[in-house]
Design a protein that fits this description.
The chain has 15 helices and no strands. Helix 4 (79-102) runs antiparallel to helix 5 (108-132), helix 5 (108-132) runs antiparallel to helix 13 and helix 9 packs parallel to helix 13 (361-386). The longest helix is centred in the middle third of the chain and has 33 residues, at 236-268. The protein has helices spanning 4-12, 15-46, 49-76, 79-102, 108-132, 142-170, 183-204, 221-234, 236-268, 271-294, 303-318, 327-355, 361-386, 392-413, 424-430. With 434 residues, it is mostly helical. It has one domain (14-209, 220-430): MFS general substrate transporter like domains (Growth Hormone, Chain: A, Up-down Bundle).
Length: 434
């Protein structure tokens, strides 16, 4: 068996991986600043949960619509080329947003417009970013490289919200001419994210892809998208899992994107509290991934039953979120929820990567990321509307009950309970690619 320490040492000596890792870490850190600053900006402009939900939806709609097309283009063309274009677009959009905030010229329609552009760029950056690694490192280094990058992503998700919350809180609470509190901190947060995209352009230019990188056969874009969807649909276990994750992401993800900022704003003390609870969730992710590396073979029966059991436990915990009255309580609960998610995340990504042929990976990952990231913003606007009529307590209890019932139905009515780690490698070879 190959010594993991030797594989890691060889990987860290590879300049392409080092450039990719450095650029990824910088960009991910900047993204966390926008993740905190954007909802806070909308709440300061409007003090309205419905407006926040609409902004999140405006960002998510183009991402949801075009992410499958992005996956098809990545499979056919270079993921580096696609990713570079998105970096230029995001740097320009966030730089403009920072200038508007700092100059007190930002308005809600402008925020909608820029959010639309950011969402469109992410529709192409997500599949290109998730498909690039197999074209950079050797096959025997892929598992180790994935582990390093996933851990790095969690570390930035841990540090970023805390730093962003502190930046906004320490930059003063005076209002600008547009009536926005925390103007200076918000503007600096957006400017920092724009700068990280500019730096990432420089690092990404130094990454060289393998000359023998796998490319899909030329197809029309919509035909290629259809091929990816058909492959997932033919696989009964993958189809069931993707449908389940899609429903859960739409409902629970949409609720959390709106409810957590509102909870922090109305009850927990502001932007610093939001940064704390988001950072706690990231810390839980990191802890869960660490536990996965130590107890990665732990299963409650099969992989599928383990996933559903973890989700059921998360549903029970969500019911308590609405009763929280202090930031530390929210942070503790998010720490536990993050740990559960982190423990299963490595297993899920590995299951998909082993199951899918390499030339279909861009399209499959675009479908998966559409489910995880494209559906929740679509539900965010509905959540904002619902919050005009229900309390936070009712919203979180409803979310927990929905998740708990969803796990029971998925176990009883779908093949998800049969998902098995050992089957993954054999299915990939027999899955049609066209």
């Amino acid at each position: 068996m190959t010594d993991p320490r030797a594989v890691r040492a060889a990987l860290m000596r590879e300049p392409n991986f080092r450039w990719m890792m450095a650029g990824g870490a910088i960009s991910l850190l900047g993204d966390q600043f926008t993740l905190i600053a954007l909802p806070w900006l909308v709440l300061q402009l409007t003090h309205d949960a419905l407006a926040l939900g609409l902004v999140i939806a405006v960002m998510g709609i183009p991402r949801a619509i075009f992410i499958l097309i992005g996956g098809a283009l990545v499979d056919r063309y270079s993921p580096k080329r696609v990713l570079m274009l998105t970096k230029y677009a995001n740097a320009a959009l966030l730089g403009l947003l920072a200038a508007l905030v700092l100059s007190d010229h930002v308005t809600l329609p402008l925020v909608y417009t820029l959010a639309l552009g950011i969402g469109l760029a992410s529709a192409f950056s997500i599949p290109s970013g998730t498909s690039m690694l197999p074209n950079v490192v050797a096959p025997q280094q892929l598992q180790m490289a994935n582990g390093i990058l996933m851990g790095m992503r969690v570390l930035t998700a841990l540090a970023g919200p805390l730093l962003a919350g502190l930046l906004i809180a320490l930059s003063g609470h005076g209002q600008g001419e547009a009536g926005i509190a925390d103007t200076r901190g918000l503007g600096i947060a957006f400017a920092f994210d724009a700068l990280t995209f500019a730096v990432t352009i420089w690092t990404l230019q130094r990454v060289q892809l393998h000359a023998e990188a796998v490319r899909a056969a030329p197809q029309r874009v919509m035909q290629a998208v259809g091929s990816g969807l058909a492959m997932v649909w033919r696989d009964a276990e993958m189809r069931s899992a993707f449908v389940y994750w899609g429903v859960i992401s739409f409902v629970i993800g949409g609720i959390m994107q709106v409810a957590l900022p509102v909870l922090a704003s109305t009850r927990l003390g502001g932007a610093a509290a939001l940064g704390l609870i988001m950072g706690a969730h990231a810390a839980g992710n990191l802890l869960g991934m660490g536990l996965s590396s130590l107890k990665g073979n732990f299963r409650v029966g099969t992989l599928g039953t383990t996933l559903l059991t973890v989700d059921a436990l998360a549903g029970v915990l969500l019911m308590f979120m609405g009763a929280i009255g202090a930031a530390w309580q929210a942070a503790l609960l998010m720490l536990v929820l993050g740990t559960l998610a982190g423990f299963m995340q490595v297993a899920v990504f590995t299951w998909i990567q082993r199951r899918v042929p390499r030339e279909m990976l861009g399209r499959t990952m675009s479908i998966f990321m559409f489910i995880l990231m494209g559906l929740a913003p679509l539900a965010a606007s509905l959540t904002g509307l619902v919050m005009q009529h229900v309390s936070l307590v009712q919203l979180f209890v409803g979310a927990g009950v929905f998740l708990l019932c969803g796990t029971v139905l998925a176990f009883a009515l779908t093949p998800m309970r049969a998902m098995n780690d050992a089957k993954s490698a054999t299915i990939a070879a027999s899955t049609p690619t066209t």
